[in-house]
Amino acid sequence: MAKRVVIAEDEAIIRLDLKEILIDEGFDVVGETGRGDEAIELVREHRPDLAILDIKMPGLDGLEAAHAIRDAQIPVTVLILTAFSQRNLIDQARDAGVAAYLVKPFQRHELIPAIELAIARSEEERAIDLEATGGAAEDKLVTRRLVEEAKMYLMDNFGLDEASAFGFIQRTAMSTRSKMVDVARQILAGELAP
Description:
8 helices, Rossmann fold, five-stranded parallel β-sheet, alpha/beta, 2 domains, Arc Repressor Mutant, subunit A
């Protein structure tokens, strides 16, 4: 099934290019706008898998829209488009729940990997949050940190890519009826390997 996408980009040419690329790549563009406030409404209405938001738009900027989407607890992956690569924007984007960002101008061959990375990160976050449901915020942070360290360990020591490393942790937890945090601890202790 095609991933559903909402595009919010105030430059019409870029928005049209994005739509064309996404459709060519098999995505279903379910809404598009040039305003941040309208992007929130489109996400609420269509419940897409992915929202691509420009950082600078009328109404609300992309970060404000991302915050509103996160606060509304709509399970959507957010990718920010920006003409800026300033560190403070990256930190603000992370705090807004943005899974990834892409600096404009971008090429077609950069967009799809950025989307795939954003979706993978978002799915990981949801899986970790689901496992840690009911736990304290501190427990969620510990789980995230340990799973991230275990992923890096698997990537560095076994040549896995990020998605495969997370998949190994998640599958192992499911098959052993353990928590991902416990599997991560076993990996870091050298007790588990793919």
